[in-house]
Specification:
The protein has a single domain, classed as Roll (Nuclear Transport Factor 2, Chain: A), CATH 3.10.450.50. The protein has four helices and six strands. It has a six-stranded mixed sheet with strand order 2-1-6-5-4-3. The longest helix is centred in the first third of the chain and has 16 residues. It is globular and about 50 Å long.
Length: 176
């Protein structure tokens, strides 16, 4: 890239590193709450006005009520017996991040796929902003294509780039 560069890491440039332990406690307790399948009192960890910003297929939830009604309840209706396993967590001031998986049973309809009873893995990445001992922002990536593949639905219709890895297709060369 030639010329001026865009400003990077705007949201974290002024983080207060003295808040790291407080942030860690909020996130660890929140994950325990999710593993306990708490919905009605999840506001113990999230600000009433927090934003939950997911990838395509997940949507954006503005406020605690939308998160409860438009994410937690439908998710738990589709996937029972779920447990969240963060494989890694990072903490920096008011910020935290994690990636991992949820293990769950597909016990209800999910994106047009009727319950299969299969035990599946739901991979995710989360970034949280914690202020005043509550999560105020949550950026989320949930690997729904992987979930749907486990349920027998290929959202890429055979055009996924995994074919390059297996040598079934040759990647196109970039134009010069």
């Amino acid at each position: 890239m030639k010329g001026s560069r865009p400003e990077q890491a705007v949201l974290t440039k002024d983080t207060d590193m003295s808040k790291t332990d407080e942030t860690r406690a909020v996130i660890e307790n929140m994950v325990d709450g999710l593993n306990d399948h708490r919905i009605n009192d999840i506001g113990a960890f999230f600000a009433q006005s927090f934003r939950w910003m997911g990838n395509e297929g997940c949507g954006t939830k503005n406020g605690l009520q939308e998160f409860q009604d438009n994410w937690q309840r439908p998710f738990q209706a589709a996937f029972s017996d779920k447990v969240c396993v963060d494989e890694a967590r990072l903490y920096m001031g008011e910020w935290a991040a994690a990636f991992g998986r949820q293990e769950a049973t597909h016990s209800g309809s999910f994106m047009g796929v009727a319950a299969t009873g299969k035990r599946i893995e739901i991979r995710y990445m989360d970034f949280w902003k914690v202020e005043d001992e509550r999560i105020t922002d949550n950026w989320v990536m949930v690997d729904f294509p992987h979930v749907l593949a486990q349920l027998g639905k290929d959202v890429f219709q055979g055009e996924g780039w995994e074919a390059f890895d297996r040598g079934e297709k040759t990647p196109p060369k970039p134009e010069s």
